[in-house]
Amino acid sequence: MRAFLTGASGFVGHWLRSHLERCGDDVTALADGVDLRDADAVRDALHAAEPDVVYHLAALSHVGRSWEQPEETVQVNVVGTLHLLEAARAARRAPRVLLVSSAEVYGSGDGAALDEHAAIAPVTPYAASKIAAEYLGVQAFLGRGLEVVRARPFNHIGPGQADTFAVAALARRVVAAERAGGEVRVGNLEARRDFTDVRDVVRAYRMLAGAGVPGEVYNVCSGTAVRIGDVLERLVSLARTAVSTVEDPSLFRPVDVPVLRGDGARLRAATGWAPEIALETTLADVLEHWRSHAP
Fold first, then answer.
1. Residue 113 β-bridge partners
2. What is the pLDDT of residues 208-224, one digit of tens each?
3. Rounded Cα–Cα distance for residues 79 and 98 (Å)
């Protein structure tokens, strides 16, 4: 299968490209210097690749930072997606498109598992941009006949994730405390999130590219919500020395969804996918990454 990736050099893109290549796919990526807001450049790159499937991962994905950069977030995540979809539609042989969205579009529920019929209630600029991008995909399918499959991943973590994300940030601070002492600064520890290892997530993406129904949306999730404070406790328990924690008000977001937990039954029914990597394994691998890469 010929695959075309946007966001290939990012955290998830790196793991997806490796997975696709191990599966024998012929992978081409949108070059790092190509801006999704440049419609001509996106079109030229996609048409040259002549892919069977497009994996659209590229986005401004930091939820907290979207509060400070709402316009840029919309330009990249929404307008950039429009350019990608238009390029796919105009290709000599239109590819299938896996459009990666986010569970942030659900906002906050009551703690019950959210399935794909749950109400959409974006509370951050990032979430609003992702639902807008999704509905461009829906329109491309309904109005243009482009085979667009949407994925809504819940929180995915793993080695190589930037420390602008909660689990990676906590792991890096734990490693710093191992080396030099001091305290681990923390923000909101009460939020609960549905974590899946990125290596399991990219398996789901390839399965959906083949078995997902065009026009449909699929949650990618473990089905279990874990308190951030419990994640921190597990990281601390894996530390090589004793470390302490201290609350840092600057690490709190303007709005933080209390609980986000998914129901992945539709994905399982379509593909047979299930997570294979335990959270404890993921956290240990994230710590080892920072032990090797932190300055």
1. none
2. 999 999 999 999 999 99
3. 17
